[in-house]
Amino acid sequence: MVNENIRFPEVRVIHDTEGHVGVMPTADALQKAREQGFDLVVIQANAVPPIAKIIDFGKYKYEKEKEARKAKAKAKTVEVKGIRLSARIGEHDLMVRKEQAKKFLERGDKLKIEIFLRGREKRHGDLAAKIIQEFVADLNKEMPLKVEQPVSRMGGQLTSIVGKA
C-alpha cells in the first residue's frame, strides 16, 4: 500500500536516512513524506501498528523486481528423468541404467523408474514390482534416496518416482 491507499489509523514510521521516526497518525506520516518529496509505503501490514517507510516508491519497486529476477535466475528447476526397465532385463543392462540413474540424481533431478509389461508379462506384475524395488534398493546403497511415489500399476505399466534425500 502506498500513500492515500493506506487505510490504517496510525503507522510506525521508518525513514531511510533518519531511521526509526516513531508511531504517528497516517495523515501526519503522509504529510512528512510529501514534504521530503518521497512516498509512504507500508512494508509490514500485519505488525501492530503497521510499519511504513518513507522512501522513493519507484526505486523501491525497481529493487524488489531486481531481487525477484535474481531469485528466479538462481532457482533450479527439477526435472523428472525417466529410466525404462523391462521384466526380462539383463544384468549388464541393469548396471547401465543404474549408472545413468546415478548421474540424473547427482544433478538434482528426480527419477521415474518404469516398466511396460507386454502380453503374458501382464500376469506377473509382482515380478516387475520386485525388479523396480531391487533397482531402488541398489541405488539406495550408493546414495541416500527418498521414495516420493511407491511402485504403482496402471494397466500394463508400473512406475515409481524417487529423488535424492
Overall CATH class of the largest domain: Alpha Beta
Helix content: 25-40%
If you compute it from the alpha carbons, what radius of gyration comes out, rounded to the nearest whole angstrom? Answer: 29 Å
For the record, the count of structural domains works out to 2
Helix and strand content put the structural class at alpha/beta
Q: What is the CATH homology-level superfamily of the largest domain?
A: Translation initiation factor 3 (IF-3), C-terminal domain
Would you tell me the overall average pLDDT?
90
Summarize the structure.
The protein is of the alpha/beta class. The protein contains four helices and eight strands.
Highlighted features:
165 residues, alpha/beta, Ubiquitin-like (UB roll), Translation Initiation Factor IF3, 2 domains, four-stranded mixed β-sheet, 4 helices, 38% helix
Task: Walk me through the topology.
Blueprint: E1 10-15, E2 19-25, H1 26-35, E3 39-44, E4 51-55, H2 57-74, E5 80-85, H3 91-106, E6 110-116, H4 125-142, E7 145-154, E8 157-164
Parallel strand pairs: 1-4, 5-6
Antiparallel strand pairs: 1-2, 3-4, 6-8, 7-8
Describe this structure in words.
This protein is α/β, with parallel strands linked by helices and 165 residues long. It folds into two domains: 3-72, Ubiquitin-like (UB roll), CATH 3.10.20.80; 80-164, Translation Initiation Factor IF3, CATH 3.30.110.10. Helix content is 38%, strand content 33%. The chain contains four helices and eight strands. The chain has helices at 26-35, 57-74, 91-106, 125-142, and strands at 10-15, 19-25, 39-44, 51-55, 80-85, 110-116, 145-154, 157-164. The strands form two sheets. Strands 2-1-4-3 form a four-stranded mixed beta sheet. It has a four-stranded mixed beta sheet with strand order 5-6-8-7, with helices on one face. Helix 3 (91-106) links the parallel strand 5 (80-85) and strand 6.
